[in-house]
Design brief:
Helix content: under 10%
Number of helices: 2
Radius of gyration: 19 Å
Distance between the termini: 32 Å
Shape: globular
Structural class: mainly beta
Strand order of the largest sheet: 1-2-3-4
Largest sheet: 4 strands, antiparallel
Strand content: 35-45%
């Protein structure tokens, strides 16, 4: 509770700390699945996120509100104060009516996006989904690339990293294999060879990153976030328990953390996660309020190969990369 008291004290004193929520989508109030990068040309952070239609008036069995979604964009100079910047300019010719879970990375002089696509608006989960590759020079206009062939008609949630020895690795969720997280390798970011299963437990929204001499894989296990560590990005050791599994104490942060994004800057790292609003006071008056989701931020801690998060601790402006 000391971190919570400090956060409230700093906020009350007008100190420069991240608000809760970090970001709330102004169109549909359904921000989720963030991917955050530093745009050196504009000297700002740029966040791409799934914009769920949480305000759509449909019954509980109708899942069209998580379909028909576009990718929203938000920008920030300091990583803690964000403003809505519109919809990502993604061509319809190579995507579809429903766009989920962008993964944005810069390799060389090109920005890359891997995007989950559902070809339509559906009222249930029974639809094909696939991942497409897009490229951009400026993070504004995106050009069509290829559809990834990953051996399944139900793949979602890409995470991509460059390997130290050369080449690239992509982690993704294969829903046909019990929502297993698998991986594939590529020499050119275009042709991918599926290798094996990466995680020994179901999950989605994998985020893989290198920090403090190790590889880390954090994924959404639907009861908090599963953490795994590795020396080679192939053989993984599971960390006991889950992070962000318990509800936070502050308004808008009172549910488990989901679908992580991670920002690494030298010896420090931050996790951005989304939170459903089902445990907020508004949900007592509006049963559909729990569909709404907001984005939050917290700093990651590492000790003896174990990651932890204190979601109550205040987050100051991020250092400029």
């Amino acid at each position: 509770m000391l971190a919570l008291a400090l956060a409230l004290l700093l906020a009350g004193a007008g100190q420069d700390v991240a608000p809760k929520p970090l970001f709330r989508d102004p169109l549909h109030d359904g921000a989720a699945d963030a991917s955050t990068v530093w745009d050196a040309s504009r000297r700002e952070w740029r966040m791409f996120y799934t914009n769920r239609r949480a305000d759509l008036l449909v019954d509980d069995k109708d899942l069209s509100w998580v379909h028909g979604t576009h990718i929203g964009v938000a920008t920030s100079r300091d990583g803690i104060r964000w403003r809505y910047a519109g919809k990502a300019r993604i061509p319809e010719s190579c995507t579809g009516a429903t766009l989920w879970a962008p993964e944005v990375q810069r390799f060389g002089d090109t920005w890359h996006m891997w995007l989950t696509v559902v070809p339509g608006v559906f009222r249930d989960w029974n639809a094909p989904r696939f991942i497409v590759h897009l490229t951009s020079r400026d993070l504004e206009k995106w050009a069509c690339g290829e559809r990834l062939e990953l051996g399944s008609d139900r793949v979602i949630d890409a995470s991509v990293a460059a390997l130290p020895g050369g080449g690239y690795r992509l982690w993704f969720n294969d829903e046909r294999l019990g929502k297993a997280i698998r991986y594939a390798d590529s020499d050119d970011l275009v042709h991918w060879q599926v290798k094996d299963m990466a995680v020994d437990t179901p999950g989605e929204g994998p985020k893989t990153f290198r920090w403090k001499g190790r590889w880390w894989l954090v994924s959404d296990a639907w009861k908090g976030l599963l953490v795994m560590r590795s020396d080679d990005a192939t053989r993984w050791t599971r960390q006991p328990g889950y992070i962000l599994a318990d509800a936070g104490a502050q308004p808008t942060d009172r549910a488990k953390g989901q679908h992580p994004d991670v920002i690494v800057s030298g010896a420090r790292a931050w996790i951005i996660y989304f939170v459903h609003q089902s445990d907020e006071g508004e949900a007592l008056r509006d049963p559909a309020w729990g569909r709404r989701t907001v984005l939050q931020i917290a700093e990651l801690r590492e000790e003896n190969g174990v990651l932890s998060v204190d979601r109550e601790a205040p987050v100051a402006p991020l250092p400029t990369p």
